[in-house]
């Protein structure tokens, strides 16, 4: 038998004892009992067959359902954790129905919680209850912090408050976070509300969590507040899948005074990891089954784990040797750089995956044309799906790309270190033989240019959505220029490099041309000018000089394109002007700036608002880099109308116009 297949079988055998290892935490209600063979049990069975599939097939991993008629009507709600996939969600909810009927035998009202999901069913309509949790379960880590109580309270408040606000603002009402502050422990947090709640309802549900945390979990290194409508967990170790969706790098000024009494929700407190037998009640059969499962798990897992580790070590060594041979055979490649890149990835990139080529071939159906999303200067991009159901975008280096490996190495080493909600997330890469492949999170709504430059699609982006996109791009650039661990100049910001997630939130992509600056550097110079004309600042296009102000210029062009729905480089759209910048300046000077705004959004914008956004864009595309604002200034101007904007001078490239005998310079 081939070693990869053997390793897969060993891994499967190793996981079997733990397939049902998630501890159920049940709360049995006091709303009466049903009898075997009753209508209520029949209705409950209907829901147990339908709800797991309904929840797992929903993109939010959430479902509610009813069965029967009063007085035997059953109401049920299922919610899976936002970072798991459909298959484990289905299994978890199905197990929940089984465990609830065993642990709360014949109870008409029961709730079970797991690490991966929660389930509640009842004979009363609890769907209408959106702002409290009815019954709250608290799980407490028995290990305590050794740091001062005041500093830990401030740290926990910062963590819970920031994560709760972020979760409430997202459409899925789910987020994961990591708090990284020097001298304090690194903390991890997950917050989730049921996605049928509004942002305000989610925030209201979570509002009492800091007070409950300080009352019941004060000093504890980890804990969970679990309710049907909202839940929270924090730990000193990563417990969720993937990278954190939110990074917290500064503390709140202080813990606010918390007045009043804690929420009146009934609270049950357990210690982790196992519930106290005196509180979690199970019948003799369940206790006996639990003991057998533990013995089976220990007896099988330990020797198989040793076998698995041996197999993995063997395969890893063999793969490294094979990879080295392939690299040696490749003509014209810098072997030292490639090997060094692989080494750096393996040594330093936690959460970053080195994919096998065969994995990506299966995921993309061997890079089929039907899976191709588009093509850039780097090479084609394909949609793929991994074996666990995760959708990915696969960016394959074109073999004929003369500068390909330089950009590939640059993007891997750079973006793997950057984490921001408005930057596309790099999941991993593949370096195998001649193949150089980047694997990103998949963005279902393609790129910004697909919407703003297509008359049939542009109407789906109203002003409210465009404003979120504008502000998100600005925040992403501000992070690159100022707040990331590295000071990064993107150098190729344009509409096609702004990807949109399922909620139409923007994510800056394609860092192949990006450059890192030292903290004291202000500009760089290159003889090789790369990027996209129309978005390039004049000092970069003509002299090869680039700086943060180069990205600001590109942002200004992009802002005008979002407002107008027109490409900067389409001369036929601007009458006598060859570009959008000249046309905008012409309208600005004549006080007709509202004419620039695309018709589908002009009715949603006030004239003063349109003038302000165009003013910001014109400031960004000033001919002299020193006259342009920083992204800090841009973000401040976008977020507050109290920021006074200066009158812009003429923009770069404004004096190009079209006459009957060709292109000329005017003014």
Could you walk me through the main structural features you see in this protein, from its secondary elements to its overall organization?
The chain is α+β, with helices and mostly antiparallel strands. It has four domains: about 25-130, Killer Toxin P4, Chain A, CATH 3.30.430.20; about 135-270, 2-Layer Sandwich (Killer Toxin P4, Chain A), CATH 3.30.430.20; about 330-440, Phosphorylase Kinase, domain 1; about 450-665, Transferase(Phosphotransferase) domain 1 (Transferase(Phosphotransferase), domain 1, Orthogonal Bundle). Helices cover about 40% and strands about 20% of the residues. The strands form seven sheets. The chain has a seven-stranded mixed beta sheet, covered by helices on one side. Strands 13-17-18-16-15-14 form a six-stranded mixed beta sheet, with helices on both faces. The N and C termini lie far apart (about 80 Å).
Note the gap between the termini.
78 Å
Total number of beta strands? 26
CATH second-level architecture of the largest domain: Orthogonal Bundle
Largest sheet geometry: 7 strands, mixed
The CATH class of the largest domain turns out to be Mainly Alpha
Could you say how many structural domains there are in total?
A: 4
The CATH superfamily title of the largest domain: Transferase(Phosphotransferase) domain 1
- The CATH topology of the largest domain is given as Transferase(Phosphotransferase), domain 1
What proportion of the residues is helical, as a percent range?
A: 25-40%
